[in-house]
């Protein structure tokens, strides 16, 4: 009888050890990104309206900005699902921060709906990836580039960049929610 208990315990320990050695490449249980598989048309229209308003009233042409974070040599669609979530969460953090920092009075109303949607998406992403997940080399390098840009670029350039690329962030969010290869 004791041999049976010892065998069961050994199988349990071995199973847990192997599970940790070979992490399963999916999102954590309880993480539902289903609603982002298809971004609602009214959310995209609100983002497009915000971008147009920003272009028309706020953006300063001729500003010398050198940020190329979205011009990557790799496609987010080719990343693992956890890497896509890490990427989108960082993109959302940048975009939300820049929208919150904007002090242009005419832009305040236009940004409210996109800001609320993006903030909710970021909250839905939080905790989806296991804390033990180590991002791939591409994502790790991109995260370092993002940190460097946040420290050396001026706020106006970061704001301009984040707002111009918010539709790409929405597409990356959709891609992360699909949990499979997407285009």
From TrEMBL:
Keywords: Antiviral defense, Cytokine, Secreted, Signal. GO terms for molecular function: cytokine activity. GO terms for biological process: cell surface receptor signaling pathway via JAK-STAT; defense response to virus; innate immune response; positive regulation of immune response. Residues 1-21 form the signal peptide. One of its GO terms (cellular component) is extracellular space. Its main location: secreted. It is found in: Secreted. The keyword Secreted applies. Pfam families: IL28A (PF15177). Belongs to the lambda interferon family. This is IFNL3 protein. It comes from Mionectes macconnelli.
């Amino acid at each position: 009888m004791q041999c049976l208990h010892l065998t069961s315990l050994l199988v349990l320990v071995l199973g847990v050890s192997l599970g940790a050695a070979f992490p399963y490449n999916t999102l954590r249980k309880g993480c539902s990104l289903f609603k982002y598989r298809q971004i609602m048309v009214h959310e995209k229209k609100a983002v497009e309206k915000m971008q147009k308003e920003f272009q028309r009233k706020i953006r300063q042409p001729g500003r010398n900005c050198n940020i190329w974070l979205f011009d990557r040599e790799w496609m987010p669609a080719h990343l693992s699902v956890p890497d896509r979530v890490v990427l989108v969460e960082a993109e959302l953090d940048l975009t939300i921060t820049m929208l919150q920092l904007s002090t242009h009075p005419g832009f305040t109303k236009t940004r409210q709906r996109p800001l609320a949607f993006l903030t909710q998406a970021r909250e839905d992403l939080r905790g989806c990836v296991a804390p033990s997940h180590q991002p791939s080399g591409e994502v790790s390098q991109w995260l370092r580039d993002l940190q460097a840009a946040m420290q050396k670029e001026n706020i106006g350039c970061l704001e301009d960049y984040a707002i111009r690329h918010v539709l790409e962030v929405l597409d990356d969010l959709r891609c992360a929610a699909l949990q499979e290869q997407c285009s």
